[in-house]
Amino acid sequence: MIGLKGTLNVIDNSGALLVECVNVLKQKVNNGWGSVGDEIVCVVRRARPISGQASASAPKVRQGDVRRAVIVRTRKAVRRPDGRFIRFDDNAAVLLNNKREMLGTRIGGVVSADLRMKGWGKIVSLAPKVV
Amino acid sequence: MLNALRRCAQRLMSTAAQPYPYSNAAIIPPPPAVPAPAPTKAGKGLMAHLPQRLLTPEKLQLLARFGKRHPERILPGSVLQVTTKYAPTSFTGVLLAIRRRGADTSFLLRNVINRTGVEVQFFVCSPHVREIKVLMRAGGRGSEGRAGPRMRRAKLFYLRDAPDKMTAISAGMRK
User: Fold this and answer.
1) Is A30's pLDDT higher than 90?
2) Which of B25, B57, B124, B175 has its CA at a distance of 20 to 30 angstroms from the CA of residue A116?
3) Which HAMAP family match (chain A) (predicted)?
4) A25 close to A35: Cβ distance less than 8 angstroms
C-alpha cells in the first residue's frame, strides 16, 4: 500500500538508493494506493554519489530527480490468486523511464512474482530471486 | 377466478403430501430430491458438517496435524517446506504462527531471502497446496524432520525483529 510520501528502496543499479512516492498512476480503484506491479511517480531522496568517471555502472540519477518506478516489494501483504499472502520486510521499487523501460541494467534483491501477472516480465527475468 | 385457477394449478403441480390446512394461498414446496444428511440434523448445523463433507481425507489429516491435540502436531518454530501447484512452487520457512479457524486454518512461514525477510501465509485446506514437509520440528514428538529447540510461545512474531535468532535457526538446519 504505497501512497503519497511512501518511501521505497531502489534495488537496481540506476544509482538511486531511496525514493519517495509522489503519485500512483492509473489508479481509479484502490483509493490511490499502489501495490506490487503498479507504476508510480517518485522523487529520488538519496542517491549514490556521482564520481567523474563515465563507466557503465555510473549512477544515472541524482538526488532530487523526478522519475517513474514500478513497485516490486511491499510490506503490506498481497494476495495471490491461489489464496496465499506474501509480505516482505520492506518496500522496494525499480526505476523506469517514461516508456516503461528500466533505467538500470541489473536488479539486486528478491522481487515478488506478482510482477509477472501485471506484465513486468523483463524485471522478473532480471531478478536474482522471485518469490 | 384467475387466482383460484392459478392456485389449483400450483397445487396440482406440486408433489406436496398435504395442503396447508389454514390457508388456500399457501405454497408448500416439494421435499428436496436429495434428503438432508443425518449429521446436519444432529443439532450442530450445516457449517459444522461442511468441512467433513467437502474436504478430502488427506486434507482432514493435514488439518488435524495443525490442531492442538494431535500427538504429532506441528509446533510453531518448526521449519516447513510447502509445495504448491502453481509457481513459485516451493517455499521453505520458519513457522511463526498457526491461525486455527477450522477449514480456514492458515499458517505463516518466514524466511530471509537475499537479506530481505519474506513471509508467506498458506491456507492448509487449499487445493493448491500439494505437500507440507517438516524439515525441523520444534520439540514435540514425531519422526518427520530433525529435532530442534522447543519455542516457548505460540506466536513467534518477535523473530521479525531478531535477525540473529533467524540465522541461529538456519544454522541449526544446516548443521
Assistant:
1) no
2) B124
3) Ribosomal_uL14
4) no
